[in-house]
Amino acid sequence: MSLPDVQSWKPESRFKLTRVGVKGIKKQIQIQRPSGISNMVARMDLFVDLPASRKGSDLSRNVEVIEEIVEQSAKKLSPSLESLCSRTAESLLHRHEYATYSEVHAQADYFLERHSPTGRMTLEPYILRAKATANREGVFREYIGVEVVGMTVCPCALETIRETLGKHQNITHNQRNISNLMIEAKEGVDADDLIEIAENSMSSPTYGILKRLDEEKVVIQAYEHPKFVEDVVRDMLKNVLKKYGHLSDDTIVIAMSESLESIHKHNAFAERHTTLGQLKK
Amino acid sequence: MSLPDVQSWKPESRFKLTRVGVKGIKKQIQIQRPSGISNMVARMDLFVDLPASRKGSDLSRNVEVIEEIVEQSAKKLSPSLESLCSRTAESLLHRHEYATYSEVHAQADYFLERHSPTGRMTLEPYILRAKATANREGVFREYIGVEVVGMTVCPCALETIRETLGKHQNITHNQRNISNLMIEAKEGVDADDLIEIAENSMSSPTYGILKRLDEEKVVIQAYEHPKFVEDVVRDMLKNVLKKYGHLSDDTIVIAMSESLESIHKHNAFAERHTTLGQLKK
Amino acid sequence: MSLPDVQSWKPESRFKLTRVGVKGIKKQIQIQRPSGISNMVARMDLFVDLPASRKGSDLSRNVEVIEEIVEQSAKKLSPSLESLCSRTAESLLHRHEYATYSEVHAQADYFLERHSPTGRMTLEPYILRAKATANREGVFREYIGVEVVGMTVCPCALETIRETLGKHQNITHNQRNISNLMIEAKEGVDADDLIEIAENSMSSPTYGILKRLDEEKVVIQAYEHPKFVEDVVRDMLKNVLKKYGHLSDDTIVIAMSESLESIHKHNAFAERHTTLGQLKK
Amino acid sequence: MSLPDVQSWKPESRFKLTRVGVKGIKKQIQIQRPSGISNMVARMDLFVDLPASRKGSDLSRNVEVIEEIVEQSAKKLSPSLESLCSRTAESLLHRHEYATYSEVHAQADYFLERHSPTGRMTLEPYILRAKATANREGVFREYIGVEVVGMTVCPCALETIRETLGKHQNITHNQRNISNLMIEAKEGVDADDLIEIAENSMSSPTYGILKRLDEEKVVIQAYEHPKFVEDVVRDMLKNVLKKYGHLSDDTIVIAMSESLESIHKHNAFAERHTTLGQLKK
Asked: Measured by CB atoms within 10 angstroms of the end CB, which terminus of chain B is less buried, N or C?
């Protein structure tokens, strides 16, 4: 018995679709990092485009593709989350013969060793975000992004209060900051470096454990680097340019910073969406 | 033609159920506040218990009940979100003749006028949480809770740094704090007072708009009241006792405070779940 | 005493920023709908761009602007959430004299009267999403979007099972569907119409209360219109073209549909991002 | 130089606190499962109580404790998430010498091999929730819970429509269901068994990949087991009793089921909070 292939029917409304796929697939994956094998749970979205002539995209293929890639990865480890996305995007085009474009997103918790100001080693949590796109012209684009939680100290209140209470007074508000840095993943671009760039662009990194002396040092260091969200984004851009300025001018860079303002109930936000070429101007 | 009443069938597995109902119903409601009519969008959950002998609870009755209560409220306004929950809980017992217990939760955005340190009027956002339960013995319990966003200034880093840099130095970390205060809603208990209690128990309230002089005053005031989450909870309890100490000893009080620590990626949390009687000891 | 204006300082890293602003501001607003005044709680984000020469954006102005617009609206009501966003975007350019671009987002719960299959009137919940942008060339763009929850019935399993069990068998899986439709808000575009378009493009609308006969009719109607997420998006596009085909070709249209698949733990998703001109081809 | 120990100060408001601690700590952990080592990212909350005489709880100790437990676990693997919580709860009492009670929560993604109806092997995602409490009387309680996503088919619409369209017609609505089952973790209680119990108590399990024949079989099987959320909870209780009826009568059992109703915008919910002894009555 052959079962009907409803997806391949002609649709009643003849419009092509930009993206069709599955969202929220959870997969256990392994990545070969310089420091060893990293076990992750990735949350993934997989899409292809759909021509006007075809009713459905047969979404079960997307899930098969990611399962195959994960299986292959168990034998031959991917060096990064973004390369795993690229392999998946390429494979999607193979399996959806009607598609001209594919797109894959992945997000996973990630951990790196850090040292507190007194030298105490801690494993700090970050989030990786990868994205890859592919088309029939053989153009592949691969992006790697990081989400880093740190701290900002407000330069405005600091100056205002110095003006009022005297230069010796360093009171100001500070708060948790969440910054995202994403860049097109070309030769030599690495998530660990992006995390370092984002973390160093804030008033201070933050840590899981801080004994009293550590806490003191973190606060004092943060006060020595008062920053608006605007400053955090600009310092990320400056550091990206320093580290990756040799990459081609069309390399996409997205930097965002959001502060959970302690003196407001809303957040402060800044963003630059650009290319390395634009940054060099 | 009479349609089968599947809910009234005998279930295969004969166990009674603690709570059966609907979650996430959104309703537009109007409440008669002292300051005027307050329009709210409430997100509601409605439950009754279910005896072992009955297969289903007929959940459409729950939605009918809340719709009727909302309709009646349009003619005769409820004085509070918690009293609207009470009326709903009572009505649920009428409609589910097999039930011995009913429970209703509601949550809504709420706004109050506040004045910034320089006297500027702003409308600040809060969240109301109400709960009501009823049983066949005629015991009704009604709770009103508030969620308030404010600011805490860490007393520990403040002292540590003073020790190191000298008494004149007031550097420390501070952060957004989210506090919840819930109390059994008896005669004279009012959400506006609870919001005031929670707000005044923090290092400082926060505001939507702060021009430079306002910002300065908020920060200085916050530094004059350094508080752990533990202090915020205790000050809420102290202020509840002061305001509502005359209520009966069995009055339930729940106070919680959570700080989005600026120096950590995790939150600090403190809670007391108690009665007025316990607090008086 | 004049307080220092830190925002106007020159930044150390000279990069312009794409968007700087505040996120997550909650405001009570009133909109003049054809059916009467609609009270809403809007959650808003407000941004401007920032030149390379200026350190900070002075975010308190954003909050002042939205407060003024809301205040003015109390006197002269806005006819829609998107026009309130437009007025805010325009005002942001006035207040941030250095900015060349402004952008405003708003989201709010919204309710419309609907009739169940047996004619029972209910108030059903929806979400409105509005967006407006403005620049110094006097170009304003205004968008209105709706989020609608409904139901999809899978055409694939329906046909497969008919093949196996016989033509008379109509078993298939169905599930909650969340669809979003956004269009550039030109003359005659109205949120209520968009909600109707999205709702009619699903297998069936859904309702708060369904007594047994209603429930039966909703299910039977849904089975008569089996649809993939791909079909929902295409039917939204078809209906948008029918209703708004007379608008200019550059009018932006974004249609998305996501099904919380009952047979999978992940979601199915389809999207078209296009213009009316493209749709007419 | 000795730094001031602000936490040990006497508080101004003398109230004891029920729970003080940290929320949202992310930790990479390894668990020794029967099937091999399981790598997880756990999201943890850690609390102790606080006497009226002590200002602060010194939260950095909580983070030290979990870090030590995780480190020890690297050498001597815990057999389960709940036993790791127990070790942490015990250690919290050691480190917080003033505390009389400790409580630890953990939550993690988890995967199990499943076979689709046609025998295809897939790795399906679940969520584990563990909890442990300890006190100075040496009473330890340990709980393990699972969150399972599956499918429910409505028995009510099925019967109603059969009545109207004839016995041969099996049309009804179905939807994604999310069920939680938690039990006190005594000898022989295992998360994998709880997942099986929850999954088998629904109308059907669900799968990542379903080719057409698989999809057909899943749907047909689900229609053969129509269930309200009430039925899902009762069947979990029945299966818990069958599997764990030999455990002591005071063993706590919590079963919850929530259906993302396809015909409504809100959810249906049922819950039983009980003990094995109560279930045996």
From this structure: N
Question: Which parts of C25-59 fold into alpha helices (H)?
Answer: none
Residue B280 has pLDDT above 70, yes or no: yes
Task: Indicate yes or no: CB of C111 within 8 angstroms of CB of B64.
Answer: no
| Nearest CB neighbour to D22, from listed B22, B228, B267 | B267
pTM above 0.90, yes or no: yes
3-state secondary structure labels for all residues of chain A: CCCCCHHHCCCCCCCCEEEEEEEEEEEEEEEEECCEEEEEEEEEEEEEEECCCCCCCCCHHHHHHHHHHHHHHHHCCECCHHHHHHHHHHHHHHHCCCCCEEEEEEEEEEEEEEECCCCCEEEEEEEEEEEEEEECCCCEEEEEEEEEEEEEECHHHHHHHHHHHCCCCCCCCEEEEEEEEEEECCCCCCHHHHHHHHHHCCCEECCCCCCHHHHHHHHHHHHCCCCCHHHHHHHHHHHHHHHHCCCCCCCEEEEEEEECCCCCCCEEEEEEEEEHHHHHC
Q: Note the pLDDT of residue C1.
A: 54
Q: Match 């101007």 to its residue by tokens.
A: A281
pLDDT band at residue C127 under the 50/70/90 scheme: very high
Tell me the residue type at D269: F
> What are D7-34's pLDDT values in tens digits?
989 988 889 999 999 999 999 999 998 7
Q: What topology is assigned to B139-281 in CATH?
A: Urate Oxidase (3.10.270)
Q: Are D112 and D123 in contact (CB under 8 A)?
A: yes
Q: Taking CB atoms and an 8 Å cutoff, what residues of chain B touch A126?
A: none
CA–CA dist D218, D206 (Å, integer): 8
Q: Which residues of C touch B64 (CB under 8 A)?
A: 209
Q: What's the complex ipTM?
A: 0.94
Pick the CATH number of A16-138 from 3.10.270.10, 1.10.10.10, 2.115.10.20, 3.60.15.10: 3.10.270.10
Domain locations along chain D: 17-138, 146-281
Q: How far apart are the first and last CA of chain B?
A: 65
Chains that touch B (3 or more CB pairs under 8 A): A, C, D
Q: How many Å apart are CA B115 and CA B110, to the nearest integer?
A: 16
Neighbours of A132 (CB within 10 A): 26
Q: Looking at D96-190, list the stretches that DSSP marks H as alpha helix, in order from N- to C-terminal side.
A: 155-165
Which of C7, C160, C264 is the closest to A4 by Cβ?
C160
Residue position matching structure tokens 């690297």: D74
Contact D208 C176 (CB under 8 A): no
